[in-house]
Amino acid sequence: MADVNRGNRPLSPHLTIYRPQLTSMTSILTRITGNAMLVAALLIVWWFLAAATSPEAFAAANGFITSWFGDLIMFFSLLGLWYHTLAGIRHLIWDNGYGLDIQTAEKLGWAALVGSVLLTIITALII
After folding, report:
1. What's the number of domains the chain is made of?
2. CA distance 101 to 94
3. Which of 10, 19, 77, 112 has its CA 20 to 30 A from that of 33?
4. What is the pLDDT of residues 114-127, one digit of tens each?
5. Phi, psi at residue 120, to the nearest 5°?
6. Could you tell me if residue 4 is inside a domain?
7. Is residue 81 part of a domain?
8. DSSP for 60-119?
9. CATH number at residue 93
C-alpha cells in the first residue's frame, strides 16, 4: 500500500544538521588519502614503465615527476602516506578496544594529524 503521507514525514539528519567532529573528519580524510595515494602510485608506475621502454619516454616521465608540479604531487602523496599510516595505527588501537572514549579518540586524531605533518617534513628534509 502506498504511503499517502509521504511529504509529512521527518527527514533524517544530514551534514547540514550535525557539527563536524574531529573523529568523523579524520575518518573521511583517511578514505581520501587512501584514494589519493593511487595518483602517486600511478605516476611511479608510469616512471618505471618509461624507464623500461626508451630513453625518450623516461625523459618525459622523469621531466614531469621532477618538475615543480610533480614535486608538489609527491610531497602531498608523502603527507597522505604518513597520515594514512598513522590513522591505520589508530584504528588498530581501536580494534583492540582501547581509546574509544571521546577524549582519547580526539587525542589520537590530533596525533595522527600533527604526526603526519611532522613526519612528512622530516622525511622530505632527509630525502
Report:
1. 1
2. 10
3. 19
4. 999 999 999 999 98
5. -65, -45
6. no
7. yes
8. HHHHHHTSHHHHHHHHHHHHHHHHHHHHHHHHHHHHTT-S-SHHHHHHHHHHHHHHHHHH
9. 1.20.1300.10
